[in-house]
Amino acid sequence: MIPAPMPSPRAPSRAESTFDVAVVGGGIVGLATARALLERVPGLRVLLLEKEAGVGAHQTGHNSGVVHSGLYYKPGSSKARCSVRGAQRMLEYCAAMRLPCRVVGKVVVAVDVSELPRLEELERRGTANGVLGLRRIGPEELREIEPFARGVAALHVPGAAIVDYRAVAESLAADLRTRGAELRVSAAVVGARREAEVWHLATASETFVARALVTCGGLWSDRLATLAEGRAPDVRIVPFRGEYWRLRAEREDWVRGLIYPVPDPRFPFLGVHFTRMVGGGVECGPNAVLAFRRDGYHRSSFSLRDTLATLSWPGFWRLASRHLATGAAEFWRSYRRAAFARALARLGPPVSADDLLPAEAGVRAQALQRDGALVDDFLVVETKDSLHVLNAPSPAATASLEIGTELAERAARAGLIPDHGPRPRT
Fold it and tell me: Which residues pair with 192 in a beta bridge?
């Protein structure tokens, strides 16, 4: 969210008012957090700043729309807790607001016996996390649910759904305005300082004053934290582009809902899969390749600053050295449509390169530790007068309403907002 260079903010004029909380970042997590703050303390003066011309412009608006059920995540983790609760809340919110939403079901397919131990571990995690309706099925029942899918066994999640997260973001923004929040778009924060017990947040044209600060910067979350705190966090955002294809219209009957592979537990990525979209059509992917720009949605996208930030981080080279073969295979699939098609065809549908048409890519903001470990869970850093969300990749969209509620509760416990006790989750 922070363009370079970052000048110091100008002093506010006397006419400028003080907000109780400033939320920086107009993706779905920032919007849900601002809403949760207002639900907890009605009448709270909340400011939301977003650098783009509209909300939900990056990770929120560049994903497949899957509502993740909580199958993959370590029991007891924030991802597991927030995705299971958040999925139900997301479906209820979409129904209440009449937003696009379809329950289509999901199968996770073990294509051969070597994948059965990992499938069993997924079943254990899903059961521990309370995933509703989860059950193990055999090849025959798999074909009844997804006639073109093939495997030795699968997990079926009948309640898996798809939504339009950009529409959710726009609905949340409208809700915030109704509740009295101030929303500013095209308002990139270029300076921040804490002085006289308030934050001074500078954009190119204005300075805003707030008693507390919450940053939800997504692809720019580490830079926002550095700008506010004067020192870099001990993680670095490394962007990974996920490239998608879509099936030709005459091939869409190959997929009824969601068909996923058994993921490699060493990575946070779920592998290429099939997704029936809420607006129609079937999307295929994504792969996961290093992006050379934080908002690098195209292969040609490049930022010298972003690239140097990745290459200068020692954790990147440690990660790359451990997974060189996997990274090379992902890049190969990026440039060879036939290789992408072969990866998809492992799941059963007889996909060839000619069946795939280009679709919009997304970029995942993945926090990477200095030792080369990918941060596996949501990560929030708390200081005296601020909260910084430093890692909130998938399933953050699914979990956004629950993440927002937990951040509001954390803000209350930290004294950033008045603590009136827990409020109902809506």
Answer: 201
Is the residue at 27 inside a domain?
Answer: yes
CATH number at residue 181: 3.50.50.60
User: Which tokens is 340 given?
Assistant: 């992408």
Q: How far apart are CA 154 and CA 422, in angstroms?
A: 40
Element (DSSP H or E) covering residue 201:
strand 198-202
Task: From 70, 130, 21, 2, select the one nearest 404 (Cα to Cα).
Answer: 21
Does any domain span residue 156? no
Query: Which SS3 state, helix, strand or coil, does residue 140 take?
Result: helix
- Please check whether residue 318 is in contact with residue 372, taking contact to mean a CB–CB distance below 8 angstroms: yes
Cα separation of 356 and 252, whole Å? 11
- Does residue 173 fall inside a structural domain? yes
Number of Cβ atoms within 10 Å of the Cβ of 234: 13
Q: Which two tokens stand for residue 91?
A: 């479906």
301: left (phi over 0), alpha (psi -120 to 50) or beta: beta
Q: Which string of b and e fits 72-87 if b means at least 16 CB within 10 Å?
A: bbeeebbbbbbbbbbb
* Rounded CA separation 144/421 (Å): 49
Query: Which stretches within 242-381 are classed as H helix?
Result: 304-311, 314-322, 324-335, 337-345
Answer yes or no: are the C-beta atoms of 295 and 58 closer than 8 Å.
yes
Give the tens place of pLDDT for each residue, 388-399: 999 999 999 999
The pTM (predicted TM-score) of the whole model is 0.93
The beta-strand segments (E) located in 205-343 are: 207-215, 235-242, 245-247, 258-261, 273-276, 282-285, 289-290
Number of domain units in the chain: 2
Same domain? For 52 and 172 the reply is yes
Phi, psi of 110 (to 5 degrees): -90, 110
Sheet architecture: strand order including 161-163: 66-67, 161-163, 101-103
The C-alpha atoms of residue 402 and residue 408 are separated, in whole angstroms, by 10
CA distance 322 to 335: 22
Residue at token pair 């898996």: 160
Tens-place pLDDT, residues 227-273:
999 999 999 999 999 999 999 999 999 999 999 999 877 666 778 99
**Residue 338 CB: number of other CB atoms within 10 A?**
12
Task: Give the residue among 390, 358, 364 at the shortest CA–CA distance from 377.
Answer: 390
Q: What is the H or E stretch that residue 155 is in?
A: strand 153-157
pLDDT tens per residue, range 154-167: 999 999 999 999 99
Whether 67 is covered by a domain: the verdict is no
Q: For strand 258-261 and strand 207-215, is the pairing parallel, antiparallel, or unpaired?
A: unpaired
